[in-house]
# Entry
Amino acid sequence: MSERVLVYGAGAVGCYLGSRLHDVTLLGRPPVVDSINRQGLIRREDGVEHRTTPRTVTEPPAAADTVLLCVRCDDVAAAIPDLSRILAPGGTVIALQNGVGTEEMLAEAIGRERVIAGTLTVSVGMEEPGTVTRYSRSGGLALASLTGENVPASVMRLAMSTGLPVLPIADYRALRWSKLLLNMLGAPLSAILDVPPAAVMQDPRLFALEQRAFRETVRAMDEMDIPVVALPGYPTPLARWAMTLPAAVARRLVGPRVARSRGGRAPTMQADLKRGRSEICYLNGAVVQVLGRERAPVNAALTDLVLDLVTHPEQRSRFRHQPSALLDVLRTPSSPVVG
# Structure
C-alpha cells in the first residue's frame, strides 16, 4: 500500500509543496478546495505555470502516514486533536511553522520521535485561492528530528521528491531559531509602517532597530547554546557576522539581501496585521521569553506594538508610512528603545 501523505493546511506553503508532490491529499478551506477541484492547483514558478490535480478534502481523512503540518503557529494547538486521531502508528508529522515553540506542543501530544521540524526557505504567496506563486529564486527545505537522530530516510525521500534542495540539520532548535532570524528581518517594522522591507533597510534609523533586535536574538541563542546554521539559499551565519559590524556597514551588506530575498513580496506579518492577527509572539516575542523585557527591549517594544495594533486597528493609520511616529513612540519613558 502506498504511503498516505496529507498536507494539513492548504495555504501558500501547503499548496506550493502539495503541487510538487505526487499522490498527496490537501486539507484546506472550502474556497481553496473548490478552486482546486474546478481548475486544478496552479503553481507559478520561473515564468512557467504548472497545474496539478491533487486530492482535496475539507475535513481530515481517516488516517495518514505522513502529515505536512502547514498551519500557522497559533493554529497548531487546534490541529493536535486531529493529528492524534488520524496519524497512523509509526507515522510522522513534519512541522513547517516559522516561529518557535510549536514542536514542543506536538512532541508532548504525539511523541518526540514522531515529529520532524521543517522549514521552507522559498518565498511563496497565494493571492487567489488555489494559485500559488514563487517569488524568490533560491531556497529549499531544511529538516531536523527532535530526538537528535538522523531524519528518517522515508522523510528525506518525500522531501527530495519535491525537487527542491533538502538540507538535514542536526539540532532542530538551530533550524527553528536560525529561520527566526531570517523571518524577523524587516517584518515587524514593515508591518507597523505598512512599507516594503526595502524601505526599512534603506532607512538608517530603522535599520539600527533591526540590528538591535537581531543582536538580541543572537544573544538569546547563545545563552541557550543554539548555533546559527545555514539554511537552503541563506548563509545565516554570514548574516550573523555582518550584523556585528557598524550599522552603516551592516546595512550595505544585509539590506540588499533582505530586500531581494522575498522577491518583492510583503512579509507575512504585514499581511497578517491587515487581517487583524499576528504570529509575533512566536517570533520576536520568543526572544523576550528567553531574555526578559529589560535585556530584549527592542523585541519587547516591537511585540507590544504589533499586538496593540492587532487589538486597536484604528491606530494603524498613525504609523502608516510614518517612521518618525514610530520612533517617537519608542523614545517614550515607558519604551526607551531609542535615544
Summary: The first strand starts at residue 5 and ends at 8.
